[in-house]
């Protein structure tokens, strides 16, 4: 199973020897291997599965970071089968739970779940069974709301605990605990109560997406002490990544791309709004593709019909919002196209991760325009972006601090913008930095657009231009857009610009000598670096929005005018004879998961007016 990368980092808690968890000499080893074959039908373990199982069987708290499809479920389902008593599994979505239980029952493993929308009598039946001396269930799944809201359930768990029948607590999709993650679920934060009430029951937390800060958050909120962290590389060597300028002919471009590279193959096109999905599907059908759309506004029967058709290859392309994808295990997805800017790098990584599960090459193409950033930002601010099913209906309603949530969203989005505008660094490198993973770009082997370029770069000090641009924003009264600023700076004489001419006469045309695109790169860099802030305004009732640049006074005073230099990398005009070796040091400063200090380029002029297409 080629796509699963090797272990890159296993942190052992105090007193644990290096190879301890790989041992085949545990008292349960034989039973483990027999059941893995007989009950689950697996010939062997995948990377890290044996180690995780041993650690949790030993009674340690364990935190697992493993890419989607890596096989996390087995690491608690197998122990659940072997241990006496019952394993409690917290999972965010009833549909995911039902899917798991179906598989467990097929394998003759007694499992059940409790959720708020279940019949009262049915719930009572299950609770009664939990109370019995010979409880038949090995696994009990619940949603986090159930833990937060049901004292009755907690009492039953206590009773299990004191009878030593609560063998393990599993927190699936554990990143939902963290507000820094892309799938925050407030009720996950209350799960710390489990460790308090059941200190002797080992906890196993599982996730496919966690940055270093998310991991810290989760460990803390769950109250895990001395927990053992198993982390494996999130790099997916068989996926090829590229970012392509998005033009008005985007759908034609997509058609051409599929025709030339993946004709009649299976793929997903992620769109921002429901209307985008429908439009894209319609257009691609016209072009002759077997294509359908999928979004949260369709009824469940319709959705599952489309998903089944796709699974059976009756249609090969699905134009979907992020509502599509959870629990989808189709191995031969050959491409994932992003028609619009994703909301975060984590989300992007996960969405791309649905391609190439079979280990064969697959393409991930992102169509990017700066105007999409404005559009997504606006939609986030008014809560109109369709959420992944994991969080929909939760984060917005229950957020403890909506302001902070919006801030986090905007920060995540800006990271995505700088990912797109970066035309220098290896795409894998930038993505993996977000998971706290160091990736040696030379091992990309030219499987991303940036590594494929044969160019060399020069570093340029652009501090003076940056200062002029900030001044220009001030001179125009902090009420015009980025594209307006750029026009004035280049000396354009169009109508709107003329209006402001008298205030800006000193800097009007000051950037004439710069190469095309250079000023806009610098301007966007200033936004990404927080010297300038982009405020989105809804300008009229046609649903168009415009953005206005504001100056972050304090940051500008202390940074830009306080001696900080701004250095960006530019492609040099001389072609290098050898391919560029991306080293691990980023273009400038240090890369952190929160902010990327990276050079910026934009394919097109930024647009002020954006059609929102809200549906
Ligand atoms: P995750 O939760 O990490 O996304 P799952 O637990 O859903 O992944 O597993 C993904 C798929 O891999 C499932 O179809 C599962 O049956 C399969 N799988 C898991 N472990 C093994 C194994 N050791 N050998 C073969 N297949 C496995
Ligand atoms: Mg899973
Ligand atoms: Zn690369």
From TrEMBL:
Q: Where is the Helicase C-terminal domain?
A: 278-359
Does this UniProt record's set of keywords contain DNA-binding? Answer: yes
Reaction(s) this enzyme catalyzes, per UniProt? Couples ATP hydrolysis with the unwinding of duplex DNA by translocating in the 3'-5' direction
What general EC class does the enzyme of this chain belong to? isomerase
Where is this chain's protein located in or outside the cell? Nucleus
* GO MF annotation terms: 3'-5' DNA helicase activity; ATP binding; DNA binding; four-way junction helicase activity; hydrolase activity
Enzyme Commission number(s) of this protein: 5.6.2.4
A single Gene Ontology CC term: cytoplasm
Q: What UniProt keywords apply to this chain's record, in alphabetical order? A: ATP-binding, DNA-binding, Helicase, Hydrolase, Isomerase, Nucleotide-binding, Nucleus
Q: Which GO terms describe its biological process?
A: cellular response to cold; DNA replication; double-strand break repair via homologous recombination
- Has the keyword Nucleus been applied to this entry? yes
Residue stretches making up the Helicase ATP-binding domain: 41-244
Domain (RQC): give its ranges: 461-572
The family annotation for this protein states:
Belongs to the helicase family. RecQ subfamily.
State the protein's name: DNA 3'-5' helicase
Species name: Vicia faba (Broad bean)
């Amino acid at each position: 199973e080629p796509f699963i990368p090797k272990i890159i980092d296993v942190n052992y808690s105090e007193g644990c020897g290096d190879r301890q968890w790989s041992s085949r000499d545990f008292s349960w080893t034989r039973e483990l291997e027999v059941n893995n074959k007989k009950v689950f039908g697996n010939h062997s373990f995948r990377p890290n599965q044996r180690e995780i199982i041993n650690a949790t069987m030993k009674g340690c708290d364990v935190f697992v970071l493993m890419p989607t499809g890596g096989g996390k479920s087995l690491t608690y389902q197998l122990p659940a089968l072997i241990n006496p008593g019952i394993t409690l599994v917290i999972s965010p979505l009833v549909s995911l739970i039902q899917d798991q239980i179906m598989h467990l029952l097929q394998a003759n493993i007694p499992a059940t779940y409790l959720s708020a929308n279940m019949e009262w009598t049915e719930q009572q039946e299950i609770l009664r069974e939990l109370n019995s001396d010979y409880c038949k269930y090995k696994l009990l799944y619940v949603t986090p709301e159930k833990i937060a809201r049901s004292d009755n359930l907690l009492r039953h768990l206590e009773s299990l605990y004191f009878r030593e029948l609560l063998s393990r607590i599993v927190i699936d999709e554990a990143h939902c605990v963290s507000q820094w993650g892309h799938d925050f679920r407030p009720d996950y934060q209350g799960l710390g109560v489990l460790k308090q009430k059941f200190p002797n029951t080992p906890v196993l937390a599982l996730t496919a997406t966690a940055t270093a800060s998310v991991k810290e958050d989760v460990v803390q909120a769950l109250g895990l002490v001395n927990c053992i962290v198993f982390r494996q590389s999130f790099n997916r060597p068989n996926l090829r990544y590229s970012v392509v300028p998005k033009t008005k002919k985007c759908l034609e471009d997509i058609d051409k791309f599929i025709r030339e590279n993946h004709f009649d193959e299976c793929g997903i096109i992620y769109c921002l709004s429901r209307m985008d999905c429908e439009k894209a599907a319609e257009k691609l059908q016209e072009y002759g593709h077997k294509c359908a759309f999928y979004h949260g506004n369709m009824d469940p029967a319709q959705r599952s019909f489309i998903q089944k058709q796709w699974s059976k290859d009756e249609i090969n392309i699905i134009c979907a919002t992020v509502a599509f994808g959870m629990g989808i295990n189709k191995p031969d997805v050959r491409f994932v196209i992003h028609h619009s800017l994703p909301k975060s790098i984590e989300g992007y990584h996960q969405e791309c991760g649905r391609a190439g599960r079979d280990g064969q090459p697959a393409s991930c193409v992102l169509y990017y325009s700066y105007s999409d950033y404005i559009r997504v930002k606006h939609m986030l601010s008014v809560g109109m972006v369709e959420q992944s099913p994991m969080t929909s209906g939760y984060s917005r309603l229950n957020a403890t601090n909506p302001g902070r949530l919006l801030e986090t969203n905007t920060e995540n989005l800006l990271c995505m913008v700088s990912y797109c505008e970066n035309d220098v660094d290896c795409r894998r490198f930038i993505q993996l930095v977000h998971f706290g993973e160091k990736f040696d770009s030379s091992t990309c082997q030219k499987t991303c657009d940036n590594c494929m370029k044969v160019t060399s770069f020069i570093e340029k000090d652009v501090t003076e231009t940056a200062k002029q641009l900030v001044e220009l924003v001030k001179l125009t009264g902090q009420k015009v857009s980025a594209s307006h600023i750029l026009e004035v700076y280049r000396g354009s004489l169009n109508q709107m610009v003329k209006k402001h001419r008298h205030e800006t006469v000193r800097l009007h045309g000051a950037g004439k000598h710069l190469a095309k695109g250079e000023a806009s790169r610098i301007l966007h860099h200033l936004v990404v670096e927080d010297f300038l802030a982009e405020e989105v305004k809804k300008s009229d009732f046609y649903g168009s929005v415009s953005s206005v640049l504001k100056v972050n006074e304090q940051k500008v005073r202390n940074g830009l005018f306080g001696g900080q230099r701004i250095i960006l990398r530019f492609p040099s005009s001389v072609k290098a004879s050898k391919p560029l070796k991306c080293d691990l040091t980023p273009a400038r400063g240090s890369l952190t998961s929160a902010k990327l200090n990276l050079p910026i380029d934009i394919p097109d002029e930024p647009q002020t007016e954006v059609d929102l297409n809200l549906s």
